[in-house]
Design brief:
There is one protein chain. The protein is 45% helix and 17% strand. The protein contains 26 helices and 31 strands. The strands form 11 sheets. Strands 8-13-16-1-17 form a 5-stranded parallel sheet. A 5-stranded mixed sheet has the order 21-22-25-23-24, sandwiched between helices. Strands 3-2-7 form a 3-stranded antiparallel sheet, with helices on one face. It is elongated, with a radius of gyration of 47 Å.
């Protein structure tokens, strides 16, 4: 074993087999709920069991942490009752068509109400005309017409006698209110019109003098004829009004009986008004009038039920990933008629998920909602007001559709947002009201203790996955492998991950591998192979870039070089973290002031301003002389990863000041605080494995390795390939507790200890100090 290196048996934590609660998942009871989220479950239970008072919930945790599984578990155990039980129905508003009327019924009554109104509409369209045309009603109308005709004949009789005495006759060209009265000459007992008499004059059957005499006599009756004609029209108008009243009275009676059934069965504000308006519309527009241009009764008198009644009394739980205004709050879809003309109607009103979740809970993806700030602000306004105003889209819709303004729909909904910390912070930045409305924070823990209880719960979760998905059982060694991977994924000392989605993914692929091998159980080799396969698929781009960096000489893995050392950055690919070997270059030049810069790729990164004062303190100087330290890292890394290179930055600066070359077969990772203490880095296993892979590709020589913070030893869970190479003294993982120790490993020289106001002359720190105090 290489001196200073961590022993191979300490490079991968393994659980005590006694802590695995069974020889197989067959023997292990399933986990009820999710893994290690008691505090979050408690917050959810309170929010679901006691909703209201704007106690909306934010369930916070990364994807794959079992957020939805926890929700499902809490809802399944509580089975909350609906706080409200109602159906929302929109009907036509006859007095204000642009403002459709909302009728709120008890849940389950919406559909029967709709059917009843459809039956009434069909009756008006199809049966009412036949009923009004049947024998009893038709007989009453005919009797009234006959009575009017009798009255008219009595009215005409005195005039007829008067005309007869003068040799004239009264004729009516047609019956009814438009009858035309005309005075004619009576010849041989028959009436002859003035036109016919002129023809007789032309044929010499009468004289012109006779014609003039008769014309004068006929004209003398013009005033009386006009008076009687007016009386006749009046009598016919009265008769027609009586006839129409017969239809109206009969229709009102029939419609009153039909609508009475509806008003007796369904009790809600607005129903009585709606039914009266329907009766008025039928009586005013559909009795005695042309109806071909009117709206179909089945449309105009219909009911648009926004939410269907549900069986049982359980609270509705609606989950959606769509966060558009239409999907959340509802919209108005116009109906299209011939010619492409959009017609806005209450029938086009569509509910959103907020209305569908009335009386229960709406579950939304917070990350999607954060991408729609205006939608989020509108949601907050609705939660504040307790009602939804449904509106048509503002773009690419007709003016008619946009002018429709349905009455606001009251809603009582508990909203549960599910997202990570980034989404939470983004929503908080969008509106300060967010934290007031979503006062209950159910925070998912990223890990659980790596103790017997944590191991037991992890195994019980795996047992639940196997049972629910009908997978082959896992053996005790396979379960131990899952627990080891869980420790690695937690990326924390003495902790196990709660990313149950990731663990389930590994078990599913392990089941596939076991099935491919015709094995009835999942063994350790299947679990380890599955984990490796998943990472390899995601990490192909990273592996290709690493190989290119080595082949091009950008990253050197042998020899010594002044002002250059190897670091290991990280990147995320397909939800996996991979390390990437990179080159840190250090140059120091005299300047007017002491300064430090850090570049990565083609952009400058923020620097830790405490580094130069800390180096001065390490070298026992009051301050550094005027100099500029320029650092660059290539390939480019993410700004938030710069902390993992701080130990390398300090070691590189000291080595350059001392004039020592740096070993290129070692890489160094570690953070440093302002006091010079070496601290942890994230994803230490992934970084080590990345450097090992790069060294393996160029050939292991026994000198290569990675320097890590000593505090990260308990987090090691390295791949067996790395452990095997370390066992064979081909690779090494070297812990350091402080900066001097890291400097010694990188330079191969003694760092030096401050004694009697000086460092040893040949020490690295001593030489660096002398370079600064010249």
């Amino acid at each position: 074993m290489v001196r200073h290196a961590i022993p191979p048996e300490r490079l991968r934590w393994q659980p005590d087999t006694k802590d695995i609660p069974g020889d197989s998942t067959r023997d292990i009871p399933v986990l009820d709920g999710t893994l290690g989220q008691d505090a979050a479950a408690e917050a959810l239970q309170y929010a679901i069991a006691s909703p209201g008072h704007n106690q909306h919930v934010f369930l916070r945790g990364p994807r794959g942490s079992g957020r939805r599984r926890l929700l499902d578990s809490v809802f399944s155990s509580l089975r909350p009752e609906a706080r409200q039980s109602r159906d929302f129905c929109f009907v036509h508003n006859f007095s204000n068509p642009d403002r459709p009327r909302l009728i709120v019924l008890s849940r389950g009554d919406g559909r029967p109400f709709q059917k009843q109104m459809h039956r009434i509409a069909l009756f008006v369209r199809e049966r009412l005309p036949d009923i009004l045309a049947n024998d009893p009603i038709r007989g009453r109308r005919e009797a009234r017409r006959e009575a009017a005709e009798r009255d008219i004949r009595l009215l005409l009789r005195p005039l007829e006698k008067k005309l007869e005495a003068e040799g004239l006759a009264l004729t009516r060209s047609q019956a009814g209110p438009n009858a035309r009265l005309q005075v004619s000459v009576r010849i041989m007992g028959k009436p002859v019109s003035q036109e016919e008499f002129r023809n007789m004059v032309a044929r010499k059957q009468a004289t012109e003098e006779d014609r003039k005499k008769f014309d004068e006599r006929i004209k003398s009756y013009d005033e009386e004829i006009q008076k009687i004609s007016r009386q006749i029209r009046k009598k016919w108008q009265q008769a027609q009004q009586h006839i129409e009243q017969i239809d109206i009275t009969e229709t009102a009676r029939i419609m009153g009986e039909m609508t009475a059934e509806v008003s007796q069965r369904f009790k809600a504000d607005g129903i009585e008004t709606f039914l009266r308006e329907i009766i008025d519309d039928v009586l005013e527009k559909r009795i005695g009038h042309e109806t071909s241009q009117l709206a179909d009764p089945t449309v105009l008198y219909g009911v648009n039920v926004l939410n269907m009644g549900r069986e049982g009394s359980g609270a509705p739980t609606v989950s959606t990933s769509a966060v558009s205004p239409a999907s959340l709050f509802g919209t108005v879809d116009p109906a299209w008629r011939s010619g492409g003309r959009a017609v806005a109607s209450f029938q086009g009103i569509r509910s959103g998920t907020l209305i569908q979740a009335d009386g229960g809970f709406l579950i939304l993806d917070a990350e999607d909602l954060a991408n729609e700030p205006e939608v989020f602000r509108q949601l907050l306004r609705i939660l504040r007001a307790g009602e939804v105003a449904i509106a048509a889209p503002t773009a690419d819709w007709s003016q008619a559709a946009q002018s429709l303004r349905p009455e606001a729909v009251p809603v009582d909904v508990g909203v549960i947002l599910v997202g990570d910390r980034v989404a939470y912070d983004r929503l908080e930045s969008i509106s300060r009201e967010f934290s007031r409305r979503f006062r209950l924070l159910a925070d998912l823990e990223a890990s659980v203790a790596r103790d017997a209880e944590g191991i037991d719960r992890t195994c019980r979760f795996i047992s639940a996955v196997v049972q629910q998905e009908q997978l082959p059982p896992l053996t005790r060694p396979a379960l131990a492998a899952v627990v080891e991977i869980s420790a690695r994924l937690s990326d924390q000392p003495s902790r196990l991950t709660t990313r149950i989605g990731r663990l389930a993914e590994i078990v599913r692929e392990a089941a596939f591998l076991a099935s491919r091998d015709d094995e009835s159980e999942i063994g350790r080799e299947h679990v380890e192979s599955a984990f490796g396969r998943i990472r390899r698929r995601a990490g192909l781009p990273s592996a290709g870039r690493t190989q290119q960096s080595v082949d091009s000489g950008l990253v050197r893995l042998r020899g010594r070089t002044a002002g250059q050392l190897n670091v290991i950055t990280r990147e995320r690919l397909a939800e996996e973290i991979f390390g990437t070997p990179a080159r840190l270059s250090v140059t120091i030049a005299r300047a007017r002031n002491a300064s430090l810069s850090l570049e990565s790729g083609d952009h400058e990164l923020p620097v830790r301003q405490f580094l130069l004062p800390m180096i001065a303190e390490l070298l026992h100087l009051d301050e550094l002389p005027p100099l500029h330290a320029a650092l660059s890292i290539d390939p480019a890394m993410q700004a938030d990863d710069a902390g993992a290179t701080l130990l390398a930055q300090v070691c590189g600066l000291i080595a350059v000041l001392a004039g020592h070359a740096i070993r290129q077969d070692l890489a160094v990772i570690g953070s440093v605080d302002p006091r010079g203490q070496v601290g942890r880095v994230d994803f230490v296993n992934e970084r080590i494995e990345a450097y090992f892979d790069a060294c393996s590709q160029s050939g292991l020589n026994g000198q290569q390795g990675v320097i890590i913070p000593a505090v990260d030893r308990d987090r090691l869970s390295l791949d067996k390939r790395v452990i095997r190479a370390c066992t064979n003294d081909q690779f090494q993982v070297i812990p350091v507790a402080g900066i001097p120790e890291a400097v010694e490993r990188l330079t191969g020289k003694t760092a030096g200890t401050w004694k009697e106001d000086a460092f040893p002359e040949d020490s690295v720190l001593g030489m660096a100090r002398r370079a600064l105090v010249k």
